[in-house]
User: Fold these one by one.
Assistant:
Number 1:
Amino acid sequence: MLPLSVTDPATGPRPVTDPDWWRSAVIYQIYPRSFYDTDGNGIGDLAGITAKLDHVESLGVDAIWISPFYPSPMDDFGYDVSNFTDVDPIFGTLEDFDRLIAAAHDRGLKVIIDLVISHTSDRHPWFQQSRASRDNARADWFVWADPRADGTPPNNWLSIFGGSAWAWDSRRRQYYLHNFLASQPDLNFHNVEVQDAVLDAARFWLERGVDGFRLDTVNFYFHDPKLRDNPPLPPGKPISGVERSNPYSYQDHIHDKTQPENLAFLERLRALTDSYPHATMVGEIGSDHDPFGTTAAYTQAGKRLHMAYGFDLLTTDSSAAHIRRTVRAMEAGIGSGWPSWAVSNHDVPRVATRWGGTHPPEAFAPLIVALVTSLRGTPCLYQGEELGLKEAEVAFEHLQDPYGKEFWPEFRGRDGCRTPMPWDDEAPHTGFSQVSAWLPIPDDHRARSVKRQEADPASPLHRTRRFLAWRRGQPELLTGDITLLDTDEPVLAFLRVLEGRELLCAFNLGDTEACVRLDGITQAHARDAPDFSGDIEIDGEAALLRLAPFDALYAQVCRSAD
């Protein structure tokens, strides 16, 4: 039996909510460096998030996911953690975090934070001690290996950020593993003391009142202890787009990540979160080898993660066919698990550019918000999606992202999706800060500011609010099953089914009117989804759908028997 309340150090006792709240939730991701600056250093902070919670609440989302704010040298902008249980001074203090938790909970918002435990910063005390000698108490807390006889690294593993995944340490006269930057050494999860230490870090934040974690690179925790070489990519597997410029893409990563030992650790992590009935976990799975099977294993109901997302809808392919294939593959493979879906985040170009291209964001962006929040699973929206922000063009001389600097110009890095939120088009620095921001803010974003869109009832901002408010009253969209329907481009259509009720969802991803015939539907009536005007009529044993450009239709349907 669940306790009647849990104790939040910031707010005191509060009622326990439905432990499955996350299934029907919409999560809003906040990149704190770029949300709102209250102390005038050009970098967003925790107090800035608190100051803008009214905006977040007004969207109709259920939870916020906050990207890392831990102490860090910022080589990878917070994903290189030097202390798992504190706040970096550029973001504020633990007291600021407590105030943020309290303010969010007062508004009914859950708070999920990034848990980055596959690696640390090389300035973390754990690594400083580990590299000091081969026989100290933490000597085996990171992945160390002797060189080959010729002095080269122990195997062919590559870093995602370029070059070998091994860096030489002259003190130990050994190599250490880093899947990302050389300043991000990988923890050795084969050592149970390491597992205990990161679980203690998670417990620290759960005790502080967080409602869960987004687990960064969750399939990177374990490595092959035999350090076997990765084979080349299987013949015939395509390498597309910017992936061709990164040698990491040419290996089949069967030994450096996604190891079977990870499942047992995730069960330990789940046991910890289950002792906090309100807590949930969403994992980021960067698996290029059976991603849907990996998601199924990682989200097995009641045992491991509550949900997980991959990069399958974070690609450049915006066709209805690609979305249909991806969702069908996930549904076919996920078993008892639960997916999460995102079409934008802090690692990929914004969807209004990546998928929208030259389409007007005013029409395209609200359509995509509706689409991703209508799929079976828990959607994550990235800050600025509610404004229809496009990818910013960041000149090389202003680039901050080490990933982009390494692979410029074929890959321009992640800064274009990380530029600051435009709050006020009439204010200096778009109201984000009193000084120049850490990344330049493009004029196009100024024109799409929150203040300007507040004044326009037809703006993406207001359309997002109206749709998410409407979604809350549609039980089929919250927890129903999904059946994908075969339709011609550019229409994506599916049914959400709950307790015998079927809700048809159809989206025209193109810029011309679309007409679709769906056989077997003999009765239907449109639900009045705000700002969408798709039409449905019955023609004998079929339904005819008419969708204007970037339009959608939601309709209660009945289908004839086979």
Number 2:
Amino acid sequence: MKKPTRGAATPPELRLEDAPMSDIIEALAGGRTTATALTKAYLARIAAYDRGGPALNSVRALNPDALAIAGELDGTRPSAKRPLAGVPILVKDNIATSDRQPTTAGSLALEGARARRDATVIKLLRKAGAVILGKANLTEFANILAVEMPSGYSSLGGQVRNPFAPALMGDHDIPVVTPGGSSSGSAVAVAAGLCAASIGTETSGSLLHPASRNGIVTVKPTVGLISRAGIVPIAHSQDTAGPMTRTVRDASILLNVLAVSDPRDPITERLRRPADYTADLARDALKEARIGVPSDPSDPLNDCYYGKLPPNGAKLMAEVIGMLQDLGAVIVRANMPTRGWLAGPGTKMAVLNRNPLSKNKGNPTGAPIVFLYELKYGLNRYLKDWATNTEIKTMADIIAFNAANAKEALRFGQDLFLAADLTKGDLSEREYKSARAMDLLAARTHGMDAYMNQHKLDAVLFPAAMGAAIAANAGYPSVMVPAGLDPGADGTDMDCPVGVTFAGRAWSEHKLLQLAYAYEHASQLRKAPPGLPAL
């Protein structure tokens, strides 16, 4: 086969607005396109739909070296050694890159801040041959700055819009339909066909919620499967990066690259993974699988995950469960133990809501103790060890900068930062240690472990991202896959995507991917957003 010329056009059969990453890899491997052609095509879509058109605003900044990197990769085809050679990928703007791209977490206080070295996730992507296309917008500091900050808003990047319903409302330009949790930019970019795939992060729901709201696939891994080194933290006990893709196979390909033990993050020393996450992805994987549905209509007061679903959501989940049964799954209906799905005693602290745009301004709101105590500890270490080209050295510096630039930086306040900064910052407080222990006791011991052990389950099925907190608190994995359209999204009459979550025990990503793959192939429910055609 003739070697492709530099910058060869993207083949017409490769529909970038909707193409799975696996198809892009095949086109690169077959010489039917090049890294340069793909990069140019995605940059054109970003210009047309993210900067222009519906102005999705999912990409906070482009990598000024993306085309040069792509050019260097034009002669390299994907292989076992470099499986992502030439594949353009966006990464969330809380993941450090040592190139000319700033790493800002969406904060005006960190505008222009760079990193001394690549985050381990970035090193692995580059080693695999990926083209880092740019940084995705996010909820500022991954939604740990202010009470009731809208998902996808940052003082530096502005508001991310849902591509299925990009309208904003009111004087404050709040989305009519949320783009999801803090990895909203990463999710929107994948849904809108602005990159082959993206990397987001989650502490509790920030991968799962935007994946559900944008109709894409994600994996929230077991904490410790993917290195956290070089990621602006919230809470190290729950933080993780994860892939955001259009298909389960694509997510599996990225897990193969990212699930690597890293001396910079000691928790990865206990990592357990298969040789290949794409192995045994089969359409019959649900046959005889025991799937827990935490819903018992005979005990409605304890039916916390399904019992309060609106009619459209209940109908959709009934269809999902029916399809799983048709595919041979054994459905086990039983409520989650109450002491599992409720946070344990002493796990929340009161934070005064000073958000000027909140209806609850002036009232206290409960915030997780673990998040706030680990936030100061982790953020101060990140700023000391990773950040450069900035005068910001501590969380207190960020608070002071925001206060001095309140009009631009504090549209929604910084109540959570103020509360976190009152902690010692060394995790020595007894209330922190107690809260962490109670989180694990509730979510892991009395929650996921007890439920799965009692009913001998392979996975637990949750509507949308409703199971995010219990899996995140436990440090356990979840896989999100599209489940259809919700005609009543956020109280509107708009058709927007909704997903379904398969959650399981630590290191069970491979099993969850197999189950999700079988459902994905039977259902074929992923839809591309309307109004974003090929250019």
Number 3:
Amino acid sequence: MYRIMIADDEGIVIDSLKFIIEKEFGQSCRIESAKTGRSVIERADQFRPEIAIMDIQMPGINGIEAMREIKKFNPNILFIVISAYDKFDYAKEAINLGVMDYLNKPIERNKIVSVLKKAMGIIDEEREKRSNELLVKEKLETVVPIIENGFLYTMMFQEYFEEDILNYRQLLGIELEYGFMAVLVCGERQEGNHMTNAVGTSVRIQNSYRDIRETVREYFPEMLVGSVMANKIAMYHPTVKEHFEYNERIEIIEKSRELVRKLKKRMNVIFRIGIGSIRHLHDTLVSYNEALTALIDTTNAVAHVDDLPIKCLYADNYPVDVEKRIFEQVEKGDLNGTITSANQFFDWMEENFASHKTDIQLKVLELVLWAERLAYLSGGMTYHFLSRKEYLPTLQKLDSLDTLRTWFVDKLTEACRRIVVKLEEQSVGVVSQAKHYINTHYTKDISLDDVSREVDISPYYFSKIFKEETGENFIEYVTNVRIEKAKELLIGTDYSMKEICCRIGYADPNYFSRAFKKNVGVTPTEYKSDKHSMGS
């Protein structure tokens, strides 16, 4: 079916052209007509013709202007211009508008049929081209996820040649060198940081993978989405910057929270998202492990590694559990646990490699350096390039395994102790900074977002540690500060209720009165009266 518009101010011309078209092409054409420039524009907007036979000379808006307007909303239309005036200037301007042919009146039947067949041929070619493009797009919808998955897991497993990565990047159009990993995990329900029925839900989301992928793309159009592995889906997002700004991090967390809510609603499955830091393309695995660690270290639906301490990865060619415990205890500031685990690890080395003193020295040095790295990352130690210059000479002088053990345990204990001090300072420092900000800004309309921005922690994580440290949530604490200030003003000044209300950050006196009574048990007026009575 071809849609054809005929525009001419002479009804007889319109009728003649309709007769020729219907006679030659039968039911394969739908025809609309108009007699003025304005009406042809209006009808073309609704009818969306593929071919327009236009008279140049029409009342009001002429054919050239009409074509120019129609071209704005229907750029692929084919114009056939007809005119009783054989003027080159008109023809030239029409050709500049992309007119397919220019015919003079009176028009021969064979000529109009020939031109229409030519136009229909062009339309058929365009339709076939669009059909092929849709077919290619449909195939890409199947192929692209496979390519994305190949890229993701090749980078994560670090089993690649540079040529492979280059090919993947070319196929996926990845020009940026940096990006972050995220991991989507699901379960029947969440118990602490654990998702239950991982196997069952992984089967369910396999069948809904396409919907999950499309939902992710609604919030993160540039996100590469891997396949389902167990109850996890690895994702990668290229970035221009090499680190997150605060606002960017919060925006990603917000979008991720909306995403997990939408996925839960669509799939009837609980989802969580862990987000790693921005890393170079070749450090994708580090970002992925950070994303997993973020989920392990918190129970939040969305966990960003920049809000949490980063845990280390461990090799598997020695007692992983004991070695892991050492660093967990060092990182947590567990001095007794660190000493116990360090001795257990040394026992293993002594039992299995007592005759390989040099190898034990190397392992001791490796673990001590790694423990100190945790202290550096936590801010518990300041790195100086020459601070370890005595380590190798000292180790080489330690003749017995007993003295080597003592040095090993002492160094780990020292790193642990430094972290203890820093953790205490950090936790107390953030809350102390937040309290100071609240106590100096309570007269203003401050929010959780304002304070979390001040301490440079996302609102969700800040809210958690604030409640843990103070025993109150943010709103309760701010309200209590304001009420205490109100009490002081009620007793020690003659300010009106409206003035006191404004001075403690409330815009509505009625709301202030209700909040005061809820916290104190009496209204501000009753409180002031009672205190004055007691004083007198």
